Amino acid sequence: MTEFKQRIFSGVQPTGNLTLGNYLGAIRNWVALQKKYESIFCVVDLHAITVWQDPAALRDATREVAAGMIASGIDPKECIIFNQSQVPGHAELAWIFNCVARMGWLNRMTQFKDKAGKNKERASVGLYVYPDLMAADILLYKATHVPVGEDQKQHLELARDIAQKFNSDYGVDFFPVVEPLILGEAKRVMSLRDGNAKMSKSDPSENSRINLTDSRDTIAKKIRKARTDSAAIAGTIEEMADRPEARNLINIFAALSDQTAGDICAAYDGQGFAAFKNDLAELSVSVLGPITEEMKRLTDEKTYIDQILKTGSEKARALSAPILKEVHNIVGFLQS
Ligand code: TYM
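A: This is the predicted complex of the input protein with tryptophanyl-5'AMP.
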């Protein structure tokens, strides 16, 4: 008897460069999960345009993110890799979810507040209903598990609310309740310049993040320049609770070397940051260097990447079609 595999879905926006945050918070975990789960990984270009994108840059970034997934070890033969806009069902189910989700729920989304900033009136409507599209991404495939970084937790809670409300509005037990998988020692990778800010593609300071397009020299330089404090490394991570920059580097070290933060503290107990940073720079270069180089090589192979996205989209359309048909039936849309 073949073993039943549960299904995971996750996505990355093709806006700017992939960062160490995307890698440690998401993609590295996907690589570990792809054997155990039936896996669907999506380059979410519909999400990207909630903020205006230059069309040529969007095309390049879409290929680059797909290349980054493959270079990190996602196997296109085992998993579905595709870009969202090639499967119209995402936008269609999102519309249905716009009619299920409540304004009050969306008003609580902290990411919208952060991204829209002070001038909410000028934000796109798409940015506001972004979490409905995210719920549609997952539920279009009835995925049960969603591996993400910690910053996506609130959106996944909303996806659970939408699934439950849809089921109760229509008196069905149709959509599963989604479980987030927030894994590893670097669930929230922070800026290298400010331990209280998330490492992000949109931070104006290049030194705040490591990009998967950075050269080995740049990666090492950014690690050596990373902000720390003047105290020595403590023997346990709990003792470093109030030292966000230091704790962030320890977590990065742990995640990159598949150890726990506690192991790293114990190994460097009582030392300053000079030797630690040299070791972290070396570790980062040895893990990320081959990925960044393979990603660059693949990004240049446009036809190869486009073919993978096309094949992935065909598979995704086939998986989602019967689910979407059933949704139409549940909602009461006539089908000929
Ligand atoms: P995005 O493109 O901002 O990030 C992609 C993935 O990377 C994780 N991540 C981080 N993890 C730890 N520390 C960080 N500093 C960091 N920065 C980013 C994110 O948590 C995410 O897992 N809305 C999503 C994309 C999306 C999606 C989905 C995800 C669209 N539909 C359906 C899951 C399921 C986003 O903007 O991710």
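The longest helix spans residues 302-331. The first strand starts at residue 7 and ends at 12.
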